[in-house]
Amino acid sequence: MNQVALKAIALHLHAQGLSPKLPDKTAPILTFNLAQNIVSELVVNPIEKKHWSLSMLTVIDTESSEDLEIFALALAPRVCPLKLATLHQQLCLQLNIHCTEKTLKPSLNEAIVLMRHMSGALFTGALDLSRRQKDLMVVLEQTIEQLAQQRLATQ
Fold first, then answer.
1. H/E run at residue 60
2. 18, 32 in Cβ contact below 8 A?
3. What are the two backbone dihedrals, phi and then psi, of residue 120, each rounded to the nearest 5 degrees?
4. Distance (Å, whole) CA 6 – CA 98
5. Among the listed residues 12, 94, 101, 3, the one whose alpha carbon sits nearest the alpha carbon of residue 48
6. Residue 154 in this model has a pLDDT that exceeds 70
7. What distance separates the 2 farthest-apart alpha carbons in the chain?
8. Cβ(91)–Cβ(122) under 8 Å?
9. What is the pLDDT of residues 95-141, one digit of tens each?
10. Rounded Cα gap, residues 24 and 90, in angstroms
11. Rounded distance between C-alpha atoms, residue 38 and residue 32, angstroms
């Protein structure tokens, strides 16, 4: 991975107030604060000299349950182009994008807005299920309503 490109991405995330960190100086991975108490990981893979594939992953810990599995399966088609899955006691949300040097910043900004919007609705629903505060059907209806709402980039 071109360290110059990784540094440019880190500077852009820093300018957005997202506190990027390089957990491993040799790996093409950045972590950053997607929102308060939500950390995302960004894996940067070069395709060509000035063309990259970015994979953004956001995960929350939750209790594994049949309701959570059904929740993820029911909502996965509604969050396209993001991928939604459960893995043991985690709910995972992933977004893959391709960009060039010229489209990096706007593509990354759009990815962050989309990930914030989707993760807010999905993670709230998943936490409601893990707390057993609401019935699965109620949580699904509320989450679908939240996903349908338009959000501002600053939320």
1. strand 51-61
2. yes
3. -60, -50
4. 15
5. 101
6. no
7. 50
8. yes
9. 999 999 899 999 999 999 999 999 999 999 999 998 888 999 999 99
10. 23
11. 9
**In terms of DSSP bridges, do strands 29-35 and 51-61 run parallel, antiparallel, or are they unpaired?**
unpaired
> How far, in Å, CA of 105 to CA of 120, rounded?
22
Structure tokens at 128: 């409601």
| CA atoms 21, 37, 150, 86: torsion sign | positive
Query: What token pair was written down for 43?
Result: 């894996």
Which DSSP string do the residues of 65-134 spell out, in sequence order? -HHHHHHHHHHGGGGTTSEEEEETTEEEEEEEEEEETTTHHHHHHHHHHHHHHHHHHHHHHHHHHHTT-S
Can you read off the two tokens belonging to residue 5? 């490109």
Residue 74, both tokens: 């029911």
Which amino acid type is present at position 135? D
Q: Which two tokens stand for residue 47?
A: 């395709």
Residue type present at position 116: R
Pick the closest to residue 10 from 50, 46, 47, 42 (CA basis): 42
Amino acid at position 88, single letter: H
The amino acid that residue 110 corresponds to is E
